[in-house]
Structures are given as C-alpha cells and as structure tokens.
C-alpha cells in the first residue's frame, strides 16, 4: 500500500512538474551526450541463445538491455531506455535498424500515463512494453499504446530512439536532429 501510494504520489508530482515546465528537466539542463554507442550486435546479452534478459514468444526470444541516453541517471531516472533485439519477421519502423545480426528497436521507458517505467513483456500474442502501475501496454514495433489508460486516453506513443550501426557492429543512438535527441519527451510521448 505504502509503495503504491509513494509511486502514485511521485507520479502526480512529476506530472505537475511536467505540466508547468513542459519537460522532464529543470532549468539547469546539462549538455546531452550526443551520438553514443549503446551495444554491439555481437554482445552476448543480445544473443537469443545467451541472453539472460529476454521475452519468450512464438517468434523466438527477444533479448533486451536498458541504457540511459541522452542523459545519465544522475540527471533523471526518466531517461532510462530499452534496446530490444526483435524477431526479424516483425516490421521495420522509423529509427529501428536491421543488421547482419538482428533487428533492433529502442524506446524511452517512461510511461506516458503517469510516468512509471515500462518493461518488455508478452501479451495478446504480441511482444510489448508493459507498465507495472496501471497496465498500459505499448507495441514493441512502434511503441503505440495498445491497452490500459495510455490507450483509453488516446495518449501518444513512447519516444523512439534513432538507431544506426557502424562497420564494427556498434549500435549507436543518434539524435533525430540537432535540437531533438529523442523523438518525443519522456513521460509525455511523441510531440
Ligand atoms: S503510469 Fe499508469 S499505466 Fe503507466
């Protein structure tokens, strides 16, 4: 009960803060990281046969890892993102990258309902991102809400991260444009 109240209370505070500031950071915004290598296509943690963090589904395992970008956790916990290696047969969308060793997507994990952090999961026969607080679910291929309050309230999808891959197999998080690192705002969604 206490934990629920604490989570709910902090979510309301954050929501109020977002409403007044229009963003997740205060006025002292540090420099963003810029393009950053977040993984390599040959990392064991992204290998379906070796990964310890994965979602099991009929199309195979979906390994994933969390990372912070374009700010680290000391700036805000709401810049936690997830990188997932999705089954190759799932559609490619803006920002995702198909490599010689897997297809990858990355999203910010701050729920656009009341700012809890979502996690990879499987529901309705789909690979999803699921919110532990009130049950919102987002499609893994495009982060559009499919269930729960984020869907019922017709809220925007989770911010996507634009991925590229270099000749060494490094997966790189890239700003969408110089002024817009994520495609959207954590906790608010696509703008
Ligand atoms: S915070 Fe309410 S569903 Fe995620």
Walk me through this protein's architecture.
The chain is of the alpha+beta class and 191 residues long. It has a single domain, classed as Rieske Iron-sulfur Protein, CATH 2.102.10.10. Helix content is 13%, strand content 31%. It is built from 2 helices and 12 strands, in the order H-E-E-E-E-E-E-E-E-E-E-H-E-E. It has helices spanning 2-21, 148-152; strands at residues 36-40, 54-57, 60-68, 80-86, 97-99, 102-108, 119-123, 126-130, 137-139, 145-147, 162-165, 170-174. The strands form 3 sheets. A 5-stranded antiparallel β-sheet has the order 2-3-4-6-5, with no helix packed on it. A 4-stranded antiparallel β-sheet has the order 7-8-9-10. A 3-stranded antiparallel β-sheet has the order 1-12-11, with no helix packed on it. It is globular. It binds FE2/S2 (inorganic) cluster. FE2/S2 (inorganic) cluster (FES) binds at residues 111, 113-114, 116, 131, 133-136, 148-150.
């Amino acid at each position: 009960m206490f934990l629920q109240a604490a989570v709910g209370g902090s979510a309301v505070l954050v929501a109020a803060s977002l409403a007044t500031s229009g963003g997740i950071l205060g006025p002292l915004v540090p420099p963003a990281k810029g393009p950053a290598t977040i993984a390599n296509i040959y990392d064991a943690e992204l290998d379906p046969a070796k990964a310890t963090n994965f979602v099991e589904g009929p199309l195979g395992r979906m390994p994933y890892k969390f990372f912070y970008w374009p700010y680290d956790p000391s700036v805000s916990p709401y810049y936690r993102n997830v990188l997932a290696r999705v089954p190759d047969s799932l559609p490619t969308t803006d920002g995702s990258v198909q490599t010689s060793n897997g297809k990858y997507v990355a999203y910010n994990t701050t729920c656009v309902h009341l700012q809890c952090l979502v996690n990879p999961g499987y529901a309705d026969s789909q690979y999803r991102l699921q919110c532990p607080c009130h049950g919102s679910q987002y499609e893994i291929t495009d982060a559009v809400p499919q269930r729960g309050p984020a869907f019922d309230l017709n809220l925007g999808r989770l911010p996507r991260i634009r991925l590229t891959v270099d000749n060494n197999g490094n997966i790189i998080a890239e700003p969408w444009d110089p002024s817009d690192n994520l495609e959207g705002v954590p906790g608010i969604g696509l703008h």
